Amino acid sequence: MFVLLGEYLTPIFSVFNVFQYLTFRTIAGILTALFIAFLLGPYMIRKLKTHKIGQVVRDDGPETHLSKRGTPTMGGALILVAIMLSTILWADLRNRYIWVVLFITFSFGIIGFIDDYKKLVLKDAKGLASRYKYLGQSIFGFVAAVFLYLTATQVAETQLFIPFFKNFVFDLGEGFIILAYFVIVGTSNAVNLTDGLDGLAIVPTMMVGVALGLFAYLSGHAEFSRYLMIPSLPGAGELLVFCGALLGAGLGFLWFNTHPAEVFMGDIGSLSLGAALGVIAVITRQELVLFIMGGIFVVETVSVIIQVASFKLFQKRVFLMAPIHHHFEKKGWKEPQIVVRFWIISFVLVLIGLASLKLR
């Protein structure tokens, strides 16, 4: 919005030309999202408490979680509001990538909202049935994948790039749609599974989001992309504004979510943020790098798959409890220990992912 305003006012007051600079708008987006989160956070927490929209804790879970029962949930709505408003204000709304990411973030947020509403307000322990949740994710993920495929103008937009190898590039053709679909839906569910401890999901999400924003900025810059031998994607740099808004909103949410949490993210936050990371990775052609940087999300998901498969096939559990962060809780690790150690691992994995920019 401010991009268009700047274009209109610059001939009158040259100072408004600053709105054309991507780096300025990204910084402004971070601060705007952070301000919105700080401003609305206390109000939203009070409303959630008033309406008794609180966390439901399983009796067979870690004993330390019993004290969390009733903690306000659906705080992910705060993140979504901050991201959406900040992006609309500071991003160039003529950019198709921005609208794809906003569409995915909002639509997956709606799915999460319905699930949270059924569980926390209607007191339906099952929430939104898995088949309907997956159906909604599939529809929105498929729509985004098809749109990106049909509107692609560069060959690189539908190719698969192998990190750390400059000559390993594969043309996907229509297979791009399948890959994009699985990355978006898969990342959404992976972040959702990770969201089980205070601050556990939001910090890795911010780290990966910032790194993907850097990839987007470099891919959108012709000279940088040529020098680093990454796909040149005109317009992709605008996603840096969205990633900045994600960072600001995440920091604002973390203020209230740090241990002991005043509010939980809920599915409305985890499903939407995961899907946002997935679609940005698809746009920037960094799906495999996302797999590396989001290693914590991958391990959490794999632990659930192993646990379910082992129990169904052999009636035995591999982990004391899945996802794996609960396994460590059962082993006696303190919650802050698990969270901070997972943050450290995420930081290292993000650095490895970023190293792929130069090691080719």
Low-confidence stretches: none
Rg result? 20 Å
Envelope shape: globular
Class based on secondary structure composition and strand pairing: mainly alpha
Order of helices and strands: HHHHHEEHHHHHHHHH
Largest sheet: 2 strands, antiparallel
Number of helices: 14
| Topology, number of strands | 2
Give the N-to-C terminal Cα separation.
38 Å
What share of the residues lie within helices?
Answer: 55-70%
What's the mean pLDDT score? Answer: 92
How are strands sequenced across the largest beta sheet?
1-2
How many individual domains?
1
Q: Beta fraction of the residues?
A: under 5%
Would you mind describing this structure in some detail?
With 360 residues, the protein is an all-alpha fold. It has one domain (23-160, 172-287). 65% of the residues lie in helices and 2% in strands. It is built from 14 helices and 2 strands. The protein has helices spanning 2-9, 22-50, 76-90, 96-120, 130-150, 175-194, 202-219, 222-228, 239-257, 267-283, 287-293, 295-314, 324-330, 335-355; strands at residues 159-161, 169-171. A two-stranded antiparallel ribbon has the order 1-2. Helix 2 (22-50) packs parallel to helix 9. The model has no long low-confidence stretch (mean pLDDT 92).
